[in-house]
Amino acid sequence: MNQQERSHHPGLIPTDDTVLTRESWKIFQIMAEFVEGFERLARIKPSVSVFGSARTPRESPHYQLAEDIALQLSEAGFAVVSGGGPGIMEAANKGAYQGRSLSIGLNIQLPHEQSSNDYQDISLGFRHFFSRKVMFVKYASAYVVLPGGFGTLDELAEILTLVQTGKTRRIPIVLVHSPFWDGLLTWFREVLVEQGTIDPEDLNLMKVVDSAREVVETIFDHYEARGFEPSPEEREKLLEL
Questions:
Q1: How many angstroms separate the first and last alpha carbons of the chain?
Q2: In terms of Cα–Cα distance, which of 214, 238, 180, 231 is closest to 73?
Q3: pLDDT computed for residue 239 by the predictor
């Protein structure tokens, strides 16, 4: 491609002002989501973010396990944060709502599946996934991940990446129900580690458990010697999120 042809490339032609105006307004929408999230969630510490499938029916053992986990976390003094929708998210909010700590839902507007559940002390609505993701991480003392689909795996990959790269503090990442996770973890070991795309030590960022009691014990074991408040260095990392 010669210089004259390059100068007429669509990517170099000035953008229509109406398009820029719409994009600029999106920035303000995102800012508003961050501001509301920071204002309403800054005092929920310590908290645990819980993830899992929106499609899990109420009669599923996974639903019942999520509810039990959230109840025990709530009774132990942790606010419980979920995506605010049905399935595992509802179970987490329901369990927390029965306990003595806050139940929080970070709802996302989706064309299918997502509808707000009825068990939220604090309910926030988001249009943008990435501002919602920040809220899941910023105030979390732990991540608890139950069986789920692409959205659940997305949140798991997000926190693993942030911890691995030092962009957030080290927190417990607890995978619940070992039969569900065995295949993925085997692939991590036999493919990612073997091909050098992750270090063997990266597998230690996660712990797999099968009961609500183990979830709570794992979180308390992690913080036993240091307490829940971030260190000055960790606080700086959280301010960068």
A1: 41
A2: 214
A3: 66
Query: Would residue 75 count as lying in a domain?
Result: yes
Contacts of 38 (CB under 8 A, 6+ apart): 138
62 belongs to a structural domain = yes
Range of the domain at 192: 16-240
Do residues 103 and 74 touch, judged by C-beta distance below 8 A?
Answer: yes
Half-sphere exposure of 13 (CA within 13 A, CB side): 5
- As for how many domains the chain has, the answer is 1
pLDDT at position 158 is 97
Beta-carbon contacts of residue 74 (< 8 Å; ≥ 6 apart): 80, 95, 96, 97, 98, 99, 100, 101, 103
Which pLDDT belongs to residue 20?
A: 66
CA-to-CA distance for 241 and 239, rounded, in angstroms? 6
User: At how many degrees (to 10) do helices 212-223 and 61-75 cross?
Assistant: 40
The pLDDT assigned to 14 comes to 66
Please give the Cα distance from 99 to 212 (Å, whole number): 14
Burial 18-47 (b: 16+ CB within 10 A, else e): eeeeeeeeeeeeeeebeeebeeebeebebb
- State the CB neighbour count (10 A cutoff) for residue 174: 23
Cβ(124)–Cβ(135) below 8 Å: yes
Q: Which residues of the chain have pLDDT under 70?
A: 1-17, 19-20, 111-114, 234, 237-241
- Tell me how far apart the alpha carbons of residues 166 and 181 are, in angstroms, rounded to a whole number: 24
The CATH number given to whatever domain includes residue 54 is 3.40.50.450
Q: Which of 212, 189, 224 is nearest to 99 (CA)?
A: 212
